[in-house]
Amino acid sequence: MSHSGTHDKLIYMANQIATFFSSQPRESQVAGVANHINLFWEPRMRTQLFAVLEDEGGKGLNELVIEAAKQIRRPEKVN
């Protein structure tokens, strides 16, 4: 599945967050991205972010977002 159309806005938003934190000291960048997404993104958005990372290899995402994914809370799956 291509992200074109489906995840474009989410990728854009994640990359904006990464761009903001890229001006911080390196040790704060990844944590800043992860903390922001954990605090302000609803579970559905985080689920979509993990779909981009897993299904599309993070295509289109800033490297800081990809690295921050290790610290982003994965929403629980609802059956």
UniProtKB/TrEMBL annotation:
InterPro entries: Formate_DH_dsu. Pfam families: FdsD (PF11390). This is Formate dehydrogenase subunit delta. The gene is fdsD.
